[in-house]
Amino acid sequence: MTRAIPSPTTDGADAPAAGVRPSGLRRLSFGLLMVYVSILAINSGGLGILIPDLVSRIDEANKVGNLAIVSTVAFLANVFAQPIAGALSDATRSRFGRRTPWMVGGGLVAAGFMVGLPMAGSVVTVAIVWLAVQLGVNALQAAATALVPDRFPPARRGGVSGMVGLGITIGNAVGAIVAGSLAAQGALPYLVLAVLMVVVVGSFVLVNRDSSSLTDAPREPFSPTAFLAGFWVSPRRHPDFAWAFASRFLMVIGFYGAQTYGLYILRDYVGLSDTESTAVAAQVGIVLLVGVLLSALASGWLSDKVGRRKPFIVWSSVVMAIALAVPLFVPTVTGVLVYSFLLGLGFGTYISIDLALMTEVLPARPAGGQSTAGRDLAVLGLATTLPQALSPSIAAGLVSATGGYPAVFVSGIVFVIIGAVAVLPIRSVR
């Protein structure tokens, strides 16, 4: 069994933080927080409110199925874009560094197509434009995530994981607030989210400059066969990697099932009007953020302090399961707000630990070998992007089969509990 990466020479980084001052790491942590805010703002505002609203206006009668189609088309980007971009960024040698070109390029593609999204006049066009947005977002995310093992020593990864987790939740809230409050203003919310991404990514790469010394660093000869083979990580040789993938997949699919249909739940399950539902959706984003703020940073810091990850994952699943049960018994605005707050507490703990755990189960590379952190983390990233893409179809099937939304909450409870159980067999992380 391959152990978690024992030292900076084998953790997939070239020189992780060896000569970086604490102030530099704090600045980089905050920068990654903001990058994830911009990513999740587009994803949550787009898929949570703007795209459902677009799809509903195009064809109200078939909105649930059509939203599933749009989300599933994005699955193609999630499957291919992030791992390929991660692997290519590993091999990139440029005067701007290894990750910067992919962050800038991905951010510009995502922002540009986001501005064009409100002009889509059919479900097919919405799906194609959203696919392009996701291609850009995944390229940006693959490069940004790889900076954690590149630049942070293992003992500091709980803290940066907490910052990234906080950025994810703030981004979710920002996306919901911007989209919910400006949904009636035509193209304005799309433009706001696009500008946010361009400004954040541009500022990040200027303030946190990538190392240009990698221009002359060794690079393995390119082989199409070896390139494709590199995306397969054997569960038999790397069981901890496989269990971490399974745990994240289950936890994320449990979280996003109900979140994807949040707007329709407010309208069709709670009984709000279209105008009321978009306003409450913004409130839900704020309440979710408060829950995460109370748990994310503290959990990441405490995890580094005690040197343990798994107990926090188990605790987070218990809180999330309780949260998902609330709307089953209290199908009101109050019930949804309580559910959102508890879900924020649980998910905040989870995402503040998850990235740190993931960097500690990466397959070790030979000393002096080319870093594969971007590729390996992007493969693990599929455990986030795949369930995000699949959860709308699963939820739509459950709604159609049962005639309502309670089954979505029940399935979420089951997924997060099994997800916590899946982390227990990991032997290289406590």
UniProtKB/TrEMBL annotation:
Record's keyword terms, sorted: Membrane, Transmembrane, Transmembrane helix
GO molecular-function terms, A-Z: transmembrane transporter activity
Cellular component, GO annotation: plasma membrane
Major localisation: membrane
Signal sequence region: none
Spans through the membrane: 30-52, 64-81, 102-121, 127-148, 160-182, 188-207, 241-259, 279-300, 312-330, 336-357, 377-399, 405-426
InterPro entries: MFS, MFS_dom, MFS_trans_sf, Sugar_transporter_CS
Record protein name field: MFS transporter
Lineage of producing organism: Bacteria, Bacillati, Actinomycetota, Actinomycetes, Pseudonocardiales
